[in-house]
Design brief:
2 domains, alpha/beta, 6-stranded mixed β-sheet, 4-stranded antiparallel β-sheet, binds adenosine-5'-triphosphate, 11 helices, binds magnesium ion, Rossmann fold
Length: about 290
Amino acid sequence: MSQRIHSSLPLIDVEGATYRYPVRGGITPAPPAIDAVSLRVEQGEYVALLGHNGSGKSTLARLLNGLLVPEVGHVRMLGHDTRERARRQFVRERVGMIFSDPDSQIIATVVADDVAWGLAARGLPREVIAGRVDAALAAVGLTDARGRAPYELSGGQRQRLAIAGVLALEPACIVADEVTAQLDPRARGEILALLRHLNRTRGLAVVAVTHLLEEAALADRVIVLEQGRIALDGAPGAVFADLDRLRALRLVVPEVALLGERLRRVGRAIPPDALSPEALVAALTEKERRPA
Ligand SMILES: Nc1ncnc2c1ncn2[C@@H]1O[C@H](COP(=O)(O)OP(=O)(O)OP(=O)(O)O)[C@@H](O)[C@H]1O
Ligand SMILES: [Mg+2]
């Protein structure tokens, strides 16, 4: 359902992109929300975009799919530059966005119709739409809810519906902007597992915006933003190795990470990206099973 595209070009190539929100009636220009950022997202990557409030995560997310366009620099998706108006539709169709409020993304009054909406808007034949709706609902586990009203669904189910709507468009990348923020812990875990599953099984690239270290720990790569610039970029194990640096970047270091840090100090081999109780327990028992 997602499209692994045969191309030697990077999936998304951000090159020296700067974005500044317009200030109404102001004389002094606002500081850039994204400031000369360069980064590449490759096909099939799972990237977490981390940063404290106002660091520029949502702005960068919107630049990635052409909802916003940089005033300086470029964002290219498979070579299509979002600064060229005629190319923007190509990018928006292949880089799907999901936001934290599921209700703002639901349009129709019946689940299946909601998934069909974006496809119908593209004028696809009815049989194609039906097939894609079925596949998308199955992919998010909402087949049985297809005839229900979205308002009857739980928050987690509504967020899965939003994901189905994006999947039906067969994207190469999903940009998820704090999509678990309004969910309870169980639904939060389900949505994260779903995104990870879609990434692993379909090669769908995921850029997941979050301000939670424990969510970012699930990614292959973590990018930390600070005042519109990239402060850190690397594997979770490398990025989370320096907790003081993360504190300086005004990120909340979870209790589990503090515990891991203390255990490391007394000689236990706890990887820095063991940021869930489960991961910590796994790291501890792993050590016991493998005698030194
Ligand atoms: N629509 C807007 N108009 C003007 N300034 C904005 C707008 N949206 C964001 N900003 C400013 O741009 C900067 C980056 O905001 P952005 O929303 O990208 O950050 P964020 O990391 O997503 O924050 P949060 O964690 O609160 O979601 C902030 O200084 C913010 O105040
Ligand atoms: Mg945001």
